[in-house]
Amino acid sequence: MTFQPQLKKIADFGSGEEWIARTEMTMLDFLPFLRVDKSAEDVKANGTLKEAFDEKKEAATGLAMAIAEELGQAFIDLRRLRETKGVMPTEIEVSKAYRDLYGHLWAAYKGRFQDFMKLLEYNIHFIFDKDSKFDSLAANFTVAHPNVNGELIERVRSDRATWHEALHTYRDDGEHNVKKPLFTGHPMHSLHTAEVIFSNTWHAIEDVFIHCMEEELGEQLTIFEIPKERRDTMVPKKYAVGLRVDTATNQVLSRT
Questions:
Q1: Global pTM?
Q2: Cα–Cα distances in Å, from 232 out to 27, 31, 237?
Q3: In 10 A of CB 48, how many CB atoms?
Q4: What is the pLDDT of residue 40?
């Protein structure tokens, strides 16, 4: 039987969406700079460094796409809420819409993104563990990755105390985490809240990734923030990898 390829439309949105450009598309840009730490014995037994790098890059590409898929499904849920202004024929449809949205966001952040970073050899489990373990696990992460900016820990700490906890609680318990009847509806069942949680989730993914990637680069490569007015409207990425050069001597500068 002859194989007949089928063309299917994956989505009706693309890299022009800021959340795609600043998560998946940015991740794919950074993957060529991943480190592969293999000893001579490992290379001899299991193949060349190039083979190891290609394998790691391929796996990372798949996980970056999986993150985007979860965020994309959340975006579809959010878009429907925008279209209806959060008003639907029945309360069960309202509940389903928000459960789907928040479920996909938590799966993208805690599931797919955590797997992605683990593959890159950054154990970010401290972001999601119990409060009682946070300080010790965060300290272990800092020891393991001394070149990651310490601001990351404080950013995560702030997130955990606000939207992160709200999303986690809702993801685990749904609307039933409210102990008393709410005749005005669940506090997470609002379009404004949905917009904020969606934005905060993909921004957190971007920020954690960029902070960690600072360690992946050598002394001469650095991460640049693209000024907002200079971002490509077709793919509005915020960050790029480049060389820092002394404009007077044209010499490449070290970051250290």
A1: 0.87
A2: 16, 20, 7
A3: 11
A4: 46
Q: Which two tokens stand for residue 196?
A: 């904020």
Q: Where are the alpha helices (DSSP H) in 107-241?
A: 114-119, 131-144, 151-161, 163-173, 191-216
Backbone angles phi, psi at 145, to 5 degrees: -135, 70
Question: Which residues, other chains included, contact 10 with Cβ-Cβ below 8 Å and sequence gap of 6+?
Answer: none
pLDDT digits (tens, 9 = 90+) for 194-243: 999 999 999 999 999 999 998 887 666 788 899 999 999 999 999 998 87
More confident residue, 255 or 55: 55
20-46 pLDDT tens trace: 999 999 999 999 888 876 554 455 455
Tokens matching residue 144: 């393991």
d(CA 228, CA 212): 22
Rg (CA), the chain: 21
- How far apart CA 219 and CA 126 sit, in angstroms, is 27
Q: C-alpha distances in angstroms, 119 versus 175, 183, 232?
A: 34, 45, 30
